[in-house]
Amino acid sequence: NSDYNEDSTPVRWFRINTIKVKAESVLKKDPFFKNLKQVHTIEDLFNCLGNIYHDEYIPNLFGINPREKITNTNVYKSGKIILQDRSSCFPAYILNPKADEDVIIDACAAPGNKTSHLAMLIDNKTNGIIAFEKNEKRGEILKKMINKAGAKDCVNVKIGDFTRCKKNDYQNVTKMIIDPSCSGSGIFRRAVDDMILQKNNIEEELSLKKKIDIGRIEKLSSFQFSIVKFGLLFPNVKKVVYSTCSIHPEENEQVVIDLLNDFEIKSKNWRLCSKDEVIPQWKRRGWKKEFIKKGYSIQDSEDLAAGCVRSLPKLDGGIGFFAASFIRE
Ligand code: SAM
């Protein structure tokens, strides 16, 4: 599972796959889960076996201690539960697709965590999702994951470059998730994590990393801008969620700002969703200073940054992550 890394999270998150099973039947009947004690904060999971936490943000998402042998369970082996970091569940939840209204493109889909989450949210509607994946090998993994999740009829997998598809062939598409390749700086190695936690100075650590990696980050950020722009120019798409597992502002807020200032995108009436529309209870939001640096007023910077969601590795109970959502009425 791409999201999960022993070293990067103090909590192992899993989603009950309601395509295959009802949450209650896992929690109350499965021999592994029925004896777990429900706790009310993720801190109760740290260094403590035998507990389960029901997430307050994402429906059907639960956390347990990473040392629990969850991958030995039958519900895991049969795709009734899916391991997926909490913040990686944000994009599909923010997109809020409706089975009776939406057809969705998942533009960068493998290994398919967000795709299978989307399928679940639209009740596994037949032909509800088109999932692009450029890399052939990863595309095969995506297909396996979709099968395992029971979403084969819902997801139409296309192996190929999303930015080379013909937009006009997708007149029926209304919503989109774009989760492109990124630096992965939200998925830290343990040593770096501990250093950050000790110093509690993520910006210092980031500027150090950036000095080493600036060329790569610039390339990624221009790729991220162009792939999201491509998505925003689809004829009938009304909502697009952009996400990364990076904590660098160049791949996050700065991509959002460049998109908001792009002439073609402006002419299509896109705006950034406000805090109220993007998991408002979640406390960690985008970085205001990135907007101020680009000349936005203090108030606009506050509002735009609040429209973005961030999570920090470990400190927020999982990987580092960023998500922002664009909408047009
Ligand atoms: N959304 C996935 C999930 O939640 O499981 C993770 C996606 S991963 C961050 C990015 C993926 O996008 C990689 O598998 C990469 O091969 C694919 N990719 C990169 N550029 C692409 C493009 N132009 N068209 C389609 N897929 C692309």
Automatic annotation (TrEMBL):
GO cellular component: nucleolus
Residues that coordinate or bind S-adenosyl-L-methionine: 108-114, 133, 161, 179
A biological-process GO annotation: rRNA base methylation
Active site positions, chain numbering: 245
UniProt GO molecular function: RNA binding; rRNA (cytosine-C5-)-methyltransferase activity
Domain of life: Eukaryota
Keywords: Methyltransferase, RNA-binding, S-adenosyl-L-methionine, Transferase
Domain SAM-dependent MTase RsmB/NOP-type stretches: 2-329
UniProt family annotation: Belongs to the class I-like SAM-binding methyltransferase superfamily. RsmB/NOP family.
The protein's name in its UniProt record: S-adenosyl-L-methionine-dependent methyltransferase
The organism of origin for this protein: Ascoidea rubescens DSM 1968
Covered range of the whole protein: 143 to 471 of 471
